[in-house]
């Protein structure tokens, strides 16, 4: 997948800019701090996920003293060209695909599949479990329509079940109807989550040695409320029966895949409890590149890779190694506060841009 062109109007510190990007090329944006490098990467991420990796506030994405912003891109995917556009105004996102309005976010997410790596990503390990769950969900949503559909239906049933639990007189029959509908969806979601995590860790393990000279094994444990190696339906049914009284007391559904978590392990120990910052960074880099590889195997094309400030803590050898393992048929965007040495990119298609206060100018090397 490739972004052929990108237009930003009143996005962050960009007034009105347009870029033409090259297919399967590494695009390097460098410049002093606070010039707009991460903003650029953020705009591509937003097109892919419909949210930012650093804020929940839509207003902060709009350039100061304006009321709306636009991100538009022409995207090549499997030799087909399409146009995607997001306009944000009045706290709302307006979506367009080939100039047709799109109502459902789920019909838009994944048209652009971008995977990012940002310095703050290591917070994933210490964040509340919702953040880890969202990470898995987002990737599965981009990859599987069935997952998207099933998860949103589950959430609807869950909402209805919780409303039913909040009534003065609880209708047990109604609750049972919602519960049995939720169970069918939970089985699908659990299987997909478990499978996704297993595959992701297999790919990540293959890449980790590029970032660490130590012999270490990455793994992850999918944590849900039943034992996923046993028959799911029987266990889930029993669990809901056992917590029914508690659910009535709390007036909410205490059990379900909406409470799932993932434990990331390094040599069988929770990464959060023992790993150094450097190890966490390497773990995440391996995981993000593993994810890209996994997407490739599934869809036959690489996602777009966004690497924000990835070089800052790598020595020259590691930088070179990182660039060498990046697949050649992948479009990549890299930011750096320092000018990048062109010799790092030997035999690669590469373009350099200097970013200065909301302007990015291509520079020849
Ligand atoms: N809504 C907005 N309107 C105007 N300017 C904004 C807006 N949001 C952010 N900015 C400006 O964008 C700049 C930050 O951009 P960005 O985070 O892309 O910096 P950067 O080039 O990645 O810097 P660093 O090297 O420190 O990571 C800041 O100057 C900030 O004031
Ligand atoms: Mg930055």
From TrEMBL:
Binding site for ATP: 31-38
Location(s), subcellular: Cytoplasm
Coiled coil: none
Cross-referenced Pfam families: SMC_N (PF02463)
GO CC annotation terms, alphabetical: cytoplasm
Example of a GO biological process term: DNA replication
RecF/RecN/SMC N-terminal domain segment(s): 3-78
HAMAP family: RecF
Physiological role: The RecF protein is involved in DNA metabolism; it is required for DNA replication and normal SOS inducibility. RecF binds preferentially to single-stranded, linear DNA. It also seems to bind ATP.
Family of the protein in this entry: Belongs to the RecF family.
Protein name: DNA replication and repair protein RecF
Organism: Floccifex porci
